[in-house]
Design goal:
16 helices, 15 strands, 17% strand, globular, Rossmann fold
């Protein structure tokens, strides 16, 4: 089976999605031939994979560079790439077209491309527009785009059960579907937790409004014996806003900001923490129902005890008292208490750590690739 994957955006090392894209492509290509249509050169792809991920691309992955005009005068001219994509697909002899860009998938739908489309869904666009206050007009446009996309798709791979259920209900999609969560590379993320120092909490990720960092800072105020390390970065304005929020709460001396680090270096930053925290807020659709965060699976594989909000998306993977400590979403006092509980009790923390390491083996990239290929076979 020959799979074509296409994505019109160039690699951006600051976006977590590229970790998942590259590692998933590599894992699928270990099992079946994959051609990747991208605006990036093969050299750029190899450089990112090696320097940021410590990943060697398999022989089964063919990188095909297509012409693109990206962000010239502030605009991205998708039409240039889209036209080249159609021509390349027409001669690719592909059994399956695998996409995760809603724009490119909608383009495939509008052009009625014959290659069976499997869409990898990560959110519901209209709800995401409302989450970020983009306006009802934007939400309506995204609903129409997704309606056309799902009418054309032959298969849907959703990263959570809640997302797949929402897609079936909202868009009357009744074709083949699979829940394909995010994953972890267990050759990079191995058990490294050393028991922690009893007072350091770590958060890893990209600084975005729906990650719950404000609540985490409030919890730190309520737990004065704890320190926090924030590993990751974001847009300059988001980084400055975070510094301002930390200073406003008077906890600057207890918070360390590392900035962005290469994914392969994350274990060095978390191994000494007493726990890792994942404070997703309940009020946004993406955090409550639709996200499958890479960091959760990485924490699990490294054996760092996890304290997480008990939102539905998290509860698809984590179980309170078994492989994580879950707290009432949106409650800073409950979060502070959960952090103190895990930090101050080595024996139960060690139990959470061991079970998480065991459970992480269910979420390797090889298993993610197998789930995708099983879906590809249903539609090809």
């Amino acid at each position: 089976m020959h799979v074509v994957f296409a994505h019109h955006e160039p690699i951006d090392a600051g976006r977590a999605r590229w970790v998942a894209i590259l590692r998933t492509l590599a894992a699928v290509a270990e099992l079946t031939p994959v051609t990747w249509f991208t605006p990036d050169s093969a050299e750029r792809v190899r450089e990112y994979a090696g320097a940021h991920l410590g990943l060697e691309l398999p022989g089964g992955l063919t990188v095909t560079t297509l012409p693109s005009i990206h962000k010239r005068m502030g605009l991205t001219l998708n039409s240039v790439f889209f036209r080249a994509f159609r021509k390349a697909l027409a001669v690719a002899d592909a059994d399956v077209l695998w996409l995760r860009s809603d724009k490119l998938a909608a383009h495939a739908a509008h052009r009625k491309l014959a290659t069976p489309l499997v869409f990898e869904a990560h959110l519901v666009g209209e709800l995401w527009a409302r989450d970020r206050n983009a306006g009802e007009r934007k939400a309506a446009r995204l609903h129409e785009l997704e309606r056309d996309l799902y009418a054309h798709a032959k298969g849907v791979a959703a990263i959570t059960r809640g997302l797949l259920d929402d897609i079936r209900t909202r868009f009357a999609y009744d074709g083949p579907g699979a829940v394909v969560p995010s994953a972890v590379d267990t050759s990079v993320f191995k058990p490294v937790w050393n028991g922690g120092d009893g007072h350091s909490v770590v958060w890893v990720g990209t600084l975005q409004f729906w990650k719950g960092l404000g609540l985490l800072l409030d919890a730190l105020v309520a737990a004065p014996e704890l320190r926090l390390k924030i590993v990751g970065g974001g847009k300059p304005e988001n980084e400055q806003r975070l510094r301002d929020e930390i200073a406003k709460r008077g906890i600057t001396e207890r918070v360390e900001l590392t900035g962005r680090v290469a994914q392969k270096d994350i274990p060095l930053h978390v191994k000494d923490a007493c726990c890792a925290v994942h404070p997703l807020p309940p009020e946004h659709s993406i955090s409550a129902r639709f996200t499958s965060p890479l960091k959760v699976f990485e924490y699990m594989a490294m054996g760092v005890p996890i304290v997480a909000a008990g939102v539905p998306s998290v509860k698809e993977v984590l179980r309170d008292g078994e492989n994580a400590r879950l707290y009432e979403p949106g409650d800073a006092t409950a979060l502070a208490a959960a952090l103190q509980e895990v930090a101050g009790n080595p024996e139960p923390a060690n139990k959470l750590s061991k079970q998480a390491v065991t459970d992480a083996q269910q979420y390797t990239y090889r298993q993610r690739a197998t789930r995708l290929i099983d879906l590809f076979k249903q539609v090809s």
